[in-house]
Amino acid sequence: MARLILFNKPFGVLSQFTDGSGTARSTLSDFIDIPGVYPAGRLDRDSEGLLLLCDDGRLQARIADPRFKMGKTYWVQVEGEPDPAALQHLARGVQLKDGPTRPAEIHRLADPALWPRDPPIRVRKSVPDSWLAMTIHEGRNRQVRRMTAAIGHPTLRLVRWSVGDWTLDGIAPGQWREIAVPGGRL
């Protein structure tokens, strides 16, 4: 039986158990004291939300490898209000410096009832913001942020809500839930 940990990673926490930088940055070891589990993928320090950890290398690879096309859904607060053409551009895929992205599933999202972020996002009174739900099937470095910037709507806050069928539902920031995966199979 493989162990799978669903962790709601807070803003500012590194997606690793140690920090070799010599600074006092927060890591997974500040929240999870389970030997033998490792992150299945990454989530940037300035992003929040679902991070999966497991003790089975094959399961870890299956979750993280884009070849298996496991969708990752992000709730993205962006600057401004993207028009239908901008959303369609995301849906078709955008050109980034490292090549075109795969198409994304995208739709507007009502202001989600999320926990407050510490520190709060920057707010500009003259520029509105809006929320999008974006599902991607690849995982390039800072991909969602770069995609929204490419359509002229920089990301203000990024929360990964789900990976495959696993969601953050009922998991508070800094908390985790363990589930058993029979034989390490999805």
Automatic annotation (TrEMBL):
Matching Pfam families: PseudoU_synth_2
Keyword terms: Isomerase
Give GO terms for biological process: pseudouridine synthesis; RNA processing
Give GO terms: molecular function aspect only: catalytic activity, acting on RNA; pseudouridine synthase activity; RNA binding
Q: Which residues form a coiled coil?
A: none
Annotated Pseudouridine synthase RsuA/RluA-like domain residues? 4-150
| PANTHER family attached to this UniProt entry | PSEUDOURIDINE SYNTHASE FAMILY PROTEIN-RELATED (PTHR47683), RNA-BINDING S4 DOMAIN-CONTAINING PROTEIN (PTHR47683:SF2)
Stated name of the protein: Pseudouridine synthase
